[in-house]
Amino acid sequence: MKQFHAYQQLKAQAESLQQTHLNDLFTQNPERFAQFHVQMPGAMLDFSKQKITEEVLDGLVSMAEEANLQQWIERLLDGDELNHTEGRKAWHTALRDVSNPNPEVAEQWEKMAYIVDELHQKQMRGYSGKAITDVVNIGVGGSDLGPLMVTHALEMQQNSNSPDIHFVSTLDGRQLQSILAKLNPETTLFIVASKSFGTIDTLSLAETAKAWMLSSCGVETSAMRHFIGVSANPQKMTEWGILPQMQLAFWDWVGGRFSLWSSIGLTIAIQMGMDGFKQMLAGAHEVDMHFKNTPFKENIPALIGLLGVWNTNFLDLAGQAILPYDSRLKYFAGYLEQLEMESNGKHTKRNGEFVDYRTCPILWGEVGPNAQHAFYQLLHQGTERVMSDFILFKEGQGSGERATFHQNLNIANCLAQSRAMMVGQESDDPHKHYPGNQVSNTLLMTRVDAHHLGMLVAMYEHKVFTQSVIWNINPFDQWGVELGKKIALSILECIDERNATQLDQSTQGILQQIWEHNA
Ligand code: F6P
């Protein structure tokens, strides 16, 4: 990063700002909020509680310009082959242009709409002729986290004819077992969601589900009426036994962690109907256009990205907390863990050289009011300096006096925490001393609905992209997860053969204890 013209100046500004308390920045500038907040319809970013000045912002924007961020954004939206290590486009934005759809995408929407209609009209029937009442999505990573996060967040917008939706992802089998125990095979439909259709987690669970179905209906062709496949690999779906009319497609140019916008989002469409699904796409598309057409100083995703770079590379903060103040966003931080850390958790530049600067920070989070009673202690009085994103909605859930009371309590808590982190508290008692000075963004959005959730996710996608451009890394591959998968297969062989002598001592020792216990 030292090649950027603004780098040395930003370093010097960071050193001086390290000595300045956030409180002083507010005292010195009564216009601070006015100066450091931006908005677009439906969203406002307040970044006045970041340790920045106008000069810092200018430096960050000049870095983005020098890195050709604008050209990169255009290449992303035009579907250039940006994922060069896998020779693919990263064209998830093409999935959400609802008013001008790509024909291949529109064809899949039609197939999805047909399935959704059949389910809502109770016309999709199982092997015994009974209508489907439960849908189980089997998938992991991007084939699980997006649909899980969205269907949980938008439960209140559920179509009254929607079947119940369940998610299974963990290969230990327990989650699947406990869901199956409550379901009737005659009325259960499985969605096997896997971009590669080669992930052992998903396929092992799908095999168990198939065995459960077969043990009830006895005939393979009847059992397979209960399985929809969603994949970018139709051949593997067919080999596994998914019937041609039960297959939904997407393409290698949709990355796993960006796939909720594709037919991987089928559960979202089932829950809300295609209209709701398309509202989510349209919200994301609005952010795509904002990202492309808005100067960086007013560009919400670009700013969130650049502020993250400032905090990571200049102020040396190593943690990023995600704190949504709405219980409906229970799975949002988990979703972002994959989006951000699988994308930018890299140590290699595009050209293969190792980086000599920090990239993606450790990101974690939790619904704010719960996190207050869990890890906020560290944010207030710990030794780590952490950046936080508070996410708040203007409208609450429900109506009536109690609903208003809870909404106000929620707003008060969100604002109290970001303020306490900034202001701190002097005390003669060192145990009660709060240093404050912890930086944060507050993203204020109108409400939790399909449109705004689409916007929110797209903002973070483009934040990640902005950072990848500055860090000069490919955010669209994930080679780092391959090694563990390979080793797991070889350890599984050792377990099957009950011979671990070629493994390291620690692995052998642990296996030995397990074998002795189960002997
Ligand atoms: O192992 C990581 C990963 O490849 C993710 O990127 C992906 O979302 C997940 O596994 C699931 O992959 P698939 O959809 O191909 O089963």
Automatic annotation (TrEMBL):
Annotated metabolic or biological route of this protein: Carbohydrate biosynthesis; gluconeogenesis; Carbohydrate degradation; glycolysis; D-glyceraldehyde 3-phosphate and glycerone phosphate from D-glucose: step 2/4
Entries under HAMAP family matching the protein: G6P_isomerase
Matching Gene3D superfamilies: 1.10.1390.10, Glucose-6-phosphate isomerase like protein, domain 1
Alphabetical list of Pfam families matching this protein: PGI
Keywords: Cytoplasm, Gluconeogenesis, Glycolysis, Isomerase
Cellular localisation: Cytoplasm
Active site: E342 (proton donor), H373, K485
EC number(s) per entry: 5.3.1.9
Catalytic activity: alpha-D-glucose 6-phosphate = beta-D-fructose 6-phosphate
Residues in coiled coil: none
InterPro entries, A to Z: G6P_Isomerase, G6P_Isomerase_C, Phosphoglucose_isomerase_CS, SIS_dom_sf, SIS_PGI_1, SIS_PGI_2
Chief location: cytoplasm
Protein name: Glucose-6-phosphate isomerase
Known function: Catalyzes the reversible isomerization of glucose-6-phosphate to fructose-6-phosphate.
GO terms assigned for molecular function: glucose-6-phosphate isomerase activity
Family under the similarity heading: Belongs to the GPI family.
